[in-house]
């Protein structure tokens, strides 16, 4: 079962690479010490209940480990899994005989694996990193290479970061080679067992993704850190959900979802972190504007509050709001049935619909460091637990996934640096 | 028209000189601002970074945690970017 069509692999490695670079840059001021190792394990459980079926469940374990290689290099490896089960929307349309059920779903389960490796080289005022990742599941293969660089200037008060990632992805699809311009004849993929074989009923589609991300951070005052950045992404290839069909017109045509093969995506953001020493805490605010060549526009805002209790307990509260317009070719299920498609593309994807969502939650972390007056076998260890609630607001009861109003996110993690 | 044209012609050399002088002043100001005089005012010294060094002052936070968060959100929204790097998704919509 296909899990997704997102450039996830590269971004995972990219974030890791940048974090490694930033961490090593920050430690460049410290005296050269022994080699350090780090390991981190995390498990996230995602549950999206449905009023119409069993909904969706995702178990997402992650494991990362890294070590310094001499004074300037750091090498890290990562492994993560997605264990997904539930009901996937197979047909987006008005269910016959009813007026409110818009999504027909079938049971599925699948597992995705991903491995990654990152090498970072750091100098006192700059860093470079290179990463590779490979992800695979029954109907999707992804390889990604990424490179990034950061440099400090003006007494380390400014940091300029640049990164580039390229994904070489392959997607399993039904064999629609003979459809030509008869797009209403596009048939969905029914199963993944023949994917990436020479079977006649499947084909392999390519998806190329280029992502460029510049950022500029400024240490504005001893209490304030500001950052602006951008994401520019170009996708070229098959981007539809191969399993999904969309009900079009009153003749009950249900062709496979059909999306443009080319998409340009742009986002700009600004973030600020402000220290609140009086309460032993900090506050973070983020604002993002996004638009793409499919006419999706979005605004996102986020607030994070951190506060220490004692020397070892850290509480984090998070609030986030996201609102977006739909893609130019999007229509809800009723409109697709009554009006037909808007041009030659059609979708049943919630991501491409006009909608908003709220996220709120908190995390409690226990952080242990050895006292400064004695040596210890470890540098730091952390144990944390987090819960967040995600609430969806869709524009219509005929929107995709209208049967799912919210989701629960629970997470536990343990990290060790030694 | 004739007088206006004459006026422009007679002012042109002086106008050009003024533009050059203004340009040199602007370059000088930019050089001072970027190179030295204002640096001390606009930068934070190492001994002033005690608060900034704490983990709660890192905008990217924990890389693994952020990746997991975006893994969920990026597949439920049409947007990307905004948190240092963009996120992944699990495709479970």
Annotate the secondary structure layout.
The complex is a heterodimer of chains A (418) and B (93).
Chain A: H1 8-26, E1 37-48, E2 56-69, E3 73-92, E4 103-123, E5 126-137, E6 140-153, E7 158-174, E8 202-221, E9 224-237, E10 245-246, E11 262-276, E12 281-292, E13 297-309, E14 313-324, H2 333-339, E15 355-368, E16 380-394, E17 406-417
Parallel strand pairs in A: 3-10
Antiparallel strand pairs in A: 1-2, 1-17, 2-3, 3-4, 4-5, 5-6, 6-7, 7-8, 8-9, 9-11, 11-12, 12-13, 13-14, 14-15, 15-16, 16-17
Chain B: H1 2-35, H2 39-42, H3 63-73
Notable traits:
heterodimer, A: 418 residues, mainly beta, 2 helices, 6% helix, B: 93 residues, mainly alpha
Describe this structure in words.
The complex is a heterodimer of chains A (about 425) and B (about 90). With about 425 residues, chain A is mostly beta strands. Chain A has one domain: Porin (Beta Barrel). Helices cover about 5% and strands about 55% of the residues of chain A. Chain A has 2 helices and 17 strands. Chain A has a 16-stranded antiparallel β-barrel with strand order 1-2-3-4-5-6-7-8-9-11-12-13-14-15-16-17. The longest helix of chain A is centred in the N-terminal third of the chain and has 19 residues, at about 10-25. Residues about 1-15 and about 15-30 of chain A have low confidence and may be disordered. Helices cover about 55% and strands about 0% of the residues of chain B. Chain B is built from 3 helices and no strands. Chains A and B meet through helix 1, strand 1, strand 2, strand 3 and strand 8 of A and helix 3 of B.
Please give a quick description of this structure.
By secondary structure, chain A is mostly beta strands. Chain A has two helices and 17 strands.
């Amino acid at each position: 079962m296909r899990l997704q069509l997102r450039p996830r692999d590269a971004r995972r490695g990219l974030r890791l690479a940048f974090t490694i670079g930033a961490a090593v840059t920050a430690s460049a001021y410290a005296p050269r010490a022994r080699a350090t190792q780090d390991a981190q394990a995390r498990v996230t459980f995602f549950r999206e209940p449905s009023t119409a079926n069993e909904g969706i469940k995702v178990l997402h374990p992650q494991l990362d480990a890294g070590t310094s290689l001499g004074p300037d290099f750091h090498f890290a490896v990562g492994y993560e899994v997605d264990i997904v089960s539930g009901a996937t929307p197979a047909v987006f349309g008005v269910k016959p005989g009813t007026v409110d059920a818009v999504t027909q779903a079938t049971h599925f389960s699948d597992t995705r694996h991903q491995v990654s490796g990152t090498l970072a080289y750091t100098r006192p005022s700059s860093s470079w990193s290179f990463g590779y990742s490979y992800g695979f599941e029954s109907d999707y293969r992804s390889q990604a290479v990424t490179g990034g660089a950061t440099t400090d200037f003006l007494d380390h008060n400014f940091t300029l970061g640049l990164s580039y990632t390229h994904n070489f992805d392959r997607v399993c699809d039904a064999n629609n080679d003979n459809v030509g311009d008869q797009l209403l004849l596009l048939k969905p993929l029914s199963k993944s067992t023949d994917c990436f074989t020479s079977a006649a009923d499947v084909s392999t589609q390519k998806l190329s993704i280029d992502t460029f991300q510049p950022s500029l951070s400024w240490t504005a005052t001893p209490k304030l850190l500001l950052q602006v950045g951008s994401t520019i992404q170009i996708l070229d290839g098959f981007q539809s959900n191969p399993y999904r069909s969309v009900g079009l017109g009153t003749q009950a045509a249900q062709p496979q979802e059909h999306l443009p093969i080319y998409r340009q995506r742009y986002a700009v953001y600004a973030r600020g972190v402000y220290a609140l020493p009086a309460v032993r805490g900090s506050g973070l605010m983020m604002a993002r504007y996004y638009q793409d060549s499919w006419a999706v526009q979005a605004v996102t805002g986020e607030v994070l509050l951190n506060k220490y209790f004692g020397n070892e307990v850290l509480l984090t509260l998070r609030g986030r709001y996201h609102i977006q317009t739909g893609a130019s070719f999007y229509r809800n299920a009723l409109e697709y049935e009554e009006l037909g498609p808007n041009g030659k593309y059609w979708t049943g994807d919630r991501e491409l619909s006009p909608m908003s969502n709220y996220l709120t939650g908190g995390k409690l972390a226990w952080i242990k460091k050895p006292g400064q007056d004695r040596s210890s076998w470890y540098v730091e260890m952390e144990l944390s637990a987090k819960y967040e609630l995600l609430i969806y607001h869709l524009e219509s009861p005929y929107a995709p996934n209208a049967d799912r109003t919210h989701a629960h996110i629970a997470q536990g993690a343990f990290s060790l640096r030694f | 028209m004739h007088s206006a044209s004459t006026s422009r012609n007679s002012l042109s050399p002086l106008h050009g000189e003024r533009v050059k002088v203004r340009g040199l002043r602007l370059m000088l100001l930019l050089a001072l601002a970027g190179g030295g005089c204002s640096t001390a005012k606009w930068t934070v010294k190492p001994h002033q970074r005690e608060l900034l060094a704490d983990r709660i002052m890192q905008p990217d936070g924990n890389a693994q945690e952020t990746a997991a968060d975006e893994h969920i959100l990026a597949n439920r929204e049409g947007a990307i970017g905004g948190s240092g790097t963009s996120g992944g998704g699990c495709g479970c919509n």
